[in-house]
């Protein structure tokens, strides 16, 4: 598959735009990418600049989804949301769907990533 790198502002309108750019990828890739984008909106604020990258092999390989934002301090936390909670499940979904996920920090940014099997 063709690697994708997309620079955008983290806004609610950016999620469907991102899904359109990822239409050649499977549902799990689209869901993980939009959940990581939504985490930026929820925890850093609407309008935060992000870079989304999706790379990987088509057959038998892994697909890697990365979302980079400018705040190396605000780290994602895997929570256990109550059954009645209206939010708090994004990273749990990523954790359930991905083979692995993590955070790479640099002095001026962080990248939250996940890898999904084919």
Automatic annotation (TrEMBL):
Keywords for this entry?
Answer: ATP-binding, Kinase, Nucleotide-binding, Serine/threonine-protein kinase, Transferase
Checking Pfam families in the record gives:
HATPase_c_2
Gene3D superfamilies from the xrefs?
A: Histidine kinase-like ATPase, C-terminal domain (3.30.565.10)
The record, for InterPro entries, names: Anti-sigma-factor_SerPK (IPR050267), HATPase_C_sf (IPR036890), HATPase_dom (IPR003594)
Locate the Histidine kinase/HSP90-like ATPase domain: which residues? 28-113
Taking the record's annotation, the residue ranges forming a coiled coil are none
Q: Which GO terms describe its molecular function?
A: ATP binding; protein serine/threonine kinase activity
Give yes or no: UniProt keyword Methyltransferase: no
Q: What is this protein called?
A: ATP-binding protein
Q: Which organism does this sequence originate in?
A: Streptomyces dangxiongensis
């Amino acid at each position: 598959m063709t690697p994708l790198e997309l620079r955008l502002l983290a806004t609610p309108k950016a999620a469907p735009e991102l899904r359109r750019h990822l239409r050649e990828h499977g549902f799990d890739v689209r869901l993980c990418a939009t959940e990581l984008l939504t985490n930026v909106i929820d925890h850093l604020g609407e309008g935060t600049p992000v870079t989304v990258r999706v790379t990987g092999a088509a057959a038998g390989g892994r697909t890697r989804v990365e979302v980079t934002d400018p705040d190396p301090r605000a780290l994602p936390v895997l929570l256990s949301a109550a059954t009645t909670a209206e939010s708090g499940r994004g990273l749990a979904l990523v954790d359930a769907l991905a083979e692995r996920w993590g955070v790479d920090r640099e002095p001026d940014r962080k990248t939250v990533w996940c890898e999904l099997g084919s």
